Amino acid sequence: MRTRRFGRLGLMVSELSLGTWGLSGDAYGPVYEQELERIVELALELGVTLFETADVYGGGAMEKLLGDTLDPRTTQVVTKLGTVRDEPARKCFDAAYLKDALARSRDRLKRETIDVVLLHNPGVETLREGDAIPFLREEQHAGRIVGWGVSAGSAEVAKAALDQSADVLELAYNLFAAKTLHELTDRIAQTDTAVLARSVLAHGLLVGHWSPNKTFFPHDHRSRRWTPEALKYRISQLQVVRQMVGGEVLTMRAAALRFVLSNQIVSSAVLGVRSQTQLRQLVRELGEREDYLPDEVLVALPEWLRQASVEL
Ligand SMILES: NC(=O)c1ccc[n+]([C@@H]2O[C@H](COP(=O)([O-])OP(=O)(O)OC[C@H]3O[C@@H](n4cnc5c(N)ncnc54)[C@H](OP(=O)(O)O)[C@@H]3O)[C@@H](O)[C@H]2O)c1
User: Fold this and answer.
1) Distance from the alpha carbon of residue 112 to the mean position of ligand 1, in angstroms
2) Under-70 pLDDT residues of the chain
3) What are the pocket residues of ligand 1 if the criterion is a CB atom closer than 6 Å to any ligand atom?
4) Rounded-to-integer distance, Cα 84 and Cα 44, Å
């Protein structure tokens, strides 16, 4: 497993990290409990050192899984705070709430110091006003967290996080959602901010396995993400990803992952695997060479994306 610098925090992390939303059962449907531990153990065997979670995933169960399985001396954990699991779930970024939430996360993760705490999908106003960021800076100063940052759901939030000198920015970055990161690249490079790229497979779309009439179970977040027409359209755009397959790029999912990692501004790609098989496939197909995509593909890609009307 190759490693990368994690921005200015002085950490080296695996270029692939394990995300745990999909494992929690909250997002895509249940995963066998025994499989959960095995996936974390396999990730360790394959050289993953960075694990991404949130206090709300599985109502704390994912933090507990990582706390029970990982050695804090050899692994890093990024967790996210700010979602209260009421019915319906709501956001809360008050310092008093975050303080208690952080204490609970440290207990579950069994870590005195958490490597990174991110605000979980805050609005711009939370970053500009309020006491969340002063609180995180104090916790960093006190040594209870190494760094802090923001998991951003929009370009505006990502910009506001950079305005506040966040150490880490997590955002969706994939072949069909590259614009925000590309626009912010200069600022991220200047400030040496760590970047966690998530949703690198566009929630499975870029794998290219779905028929145009694909449907999802109601508890799967993808049943609400696309209308049937929007999904058909997205699937028709996958021709671009198909064009990238060839030579060492064995599959569409490999092309998608290699695209993300070919961008050196990315510190780690957060994988959303839901089985050991999926994890093995992605690691194997990523290969061992540093040239993730052939030069001719990188040169042709912007034009291929334009032809498929993918916004750059
Ligand atoms: N706001 C936030 O902070 C936020 C938001 C989203 C995600 N995240 C984090 O990022 C992680 C990944 O995000 P995501 O779930 O959006 O990601 P993704 O990686 O784009 O998609 C995950 C889906 O891709 C499919 N997949 C994965 N590996 C595969 C393989 N080898 N072959 C075929 N299909 C494969 C699976 O679909 P099937 O289930 O259909 O097999 C899986 O559910 C999450 O687990 C979470 O930790 C954070």
Assistant:
1) 29
2) none
3) 19-22, 28, 52, 80, 120-121, 151, 170, 198-204, 207, 253, 270-274, 278, 281-282
4) 30
Quick one: fold of 3-203+258-290?
TIM Barrel (3.20.20)
**Residue 217, by phi and psi: left (phi above 0), alpha (psi -120 to 50) or beta?**
beta
pLDDT in tens, 20-50: 999 999 999 989 989 999 999 999 999 999 9
Q: Name the phi and psi angles at 105, rounded to 5.
A: -65, -40
Domain boundaries, the chain: 3-203+258-290
Distances (CA, A) of 70 to 79, 108, 121, 147, 267: 14, 12, 26, 19, 21
How far apart, in Å, are the Cα atoms of 206 and each of 57, 150, 183, 253, 301?
A: 24, 25, 22, 6, 15
The vertex-77 CA angle with 111 and 128, nearest 5°, equals: 105
Task: Measure the CA–CA gap between 221 and 64, rounded to whole angstroms.
Answer: 23
What letter does residue 178 receive in the DSSP assignment? -
pTM of the predicted structure, to 2 decimals = 0.97
